[in-house]
Amino acid sequence: MPFALYLLGLAVFAQGTSEFMLSGLGPDIARDLQVSLPAAGSLTSAFAVGMVVGAPLMAVVSRRWSRRRALLLFLVTFLVVHVVGALTASYAVLLVTRVVGALANAGFLAVALVTAVGMVDRTKTGRATSALLGGVTMACVVGVPAGAVLGQMWGWRSAFWAVALVSVPAVLAILWAVPSSGAASGTGAGGVGSAGGVGAWAELRSLREPRLLVTLVLGALVNGATFCTFTYLSPLVTSVTGLGAGWVPVVLALFGVGSFVGVTVGGRVADARPVPFLVAGGLALMAGWVVLAVTAGNPVALTVLVLVQGTLSFAVGSTLVARALYAATGAPTLAGGFATAALNVGAAAGPWCGGLVIAAGRGFRAPVWVSAALVALALVTAGAGVIVARVVARRRTAAGVSVARDGGREYV
């Protein structure tokens, strides 16, 4: 993999830390700003909503910018709003900074995804995706637990300051590694992101492609399941399992280790046997959430299952991202925006659903049950998608229309 991919991953690390770190800071934010825990959890949803809106929007806006200009503008904006967030005493202002930061994050990731894929041969799309998303998993392994420790020692604001500081070397890395020429959405020859003169509206119309739509829906559901539990992992550890607050960073780190393993495995599988893996991985993921909901009161079971679920969640999720990039043949420059938006639809809906069941008095196990239900819905959707695809293929064949295939592979 090109070294520049890993430099882009450094910026993704800072952004991923910001997106995920509230799972360990929610109770402190709620106390400090005098809001409810679900309200603090909605900060994660707000960030995800900004990512959903920002991914395709920022990808369109930055189509004519140079890669360096786009990535720098998005990253510097991200840095500044974290400084504002660290200084504010207002929940409303903090909420706004999360949305603006998410817009910047979405723009950065949308451009970086397509740029990363364009750096490699098309057959290595999955590996390029996993290399970039490795920054997200390292955020889970290092950034999020470190943020939780900082929050316990010096308050939640210190974690926001840390994210701003980590973003500084990422800015310098982009200045050094990313060329000033070339459109932000354009990529190397042969990659998914080769623009080929396709207009923005034509790319948006590609969302009508059933294969791409199903893949994006599956990504949203799986990521929703992940965030539904992950956002409320801190109170699950302390209130249900009965462990002390000092265990929260440890459990978050275990989830992060699992996510790193999952992205690594997913990157390999996405280029080899994606469909069998998605079926088996989806079934295992659903079963894992059910078992975690039942055994969350046992410290050993909790720690083991957090590691396992982190692995499965990110392995399945990263494979779906690669499938979306493969399927988005009609959207060479907005493919990264589509994938980013889909993942963050789930990231917004997951914490919201978890907050609903907690507010309804169902306890802190309830979000885990919701996660299991979301994965079950993803499996049903995938099955329905396969049936619809076969019916459409038969009708096209009967009408004398050849079904396009990419390298002989079929995709969910």
Task: State the main characteristics.
412 residues; mainly alpha; 15 helices; 78% helix; 0% strand; globular; disordered C terminus
Sequence-ordered SSE layout with sheet pairings:
Elements: H1 3-20, H2 22-33, H3 37-61, H4 67-87, H5 91-118, H6 125-154, H7 156-177, H8 200-205, H9 210-230, H10 233-240, H11 247-269, H12 274-295, H13 299-327, H14 335-359, H15 366-398
Short description:
The protein is mostly helical and 412 residues long. 78% of the residues lie in helices and 0% in strands.
Low-confidence stretches: 185-197, 407-412
Largest sheet: none
Q: Helical content, roughly? A: over 70%
State the assembly state of the protein chains: single chain
Coarse structural class: mainly alpha
SSE string, helix = H, strand = E? HHHHHHHHHHHHHHH
Account of the 3D structure:
With 412 residues, this protein is mainly α. It has 15 helices and no strands. It has helices at 3-20, 22-33, 37-61, 67-87, 91-118, 125-154, 156-177, 200-205, 210-230, 233-240, 247-269, 274-295, 299-327, 335-359, 366-398. The two termini are 26 Å apart. Residues 185-197 and 407-412 have low confidence and may be disordered.
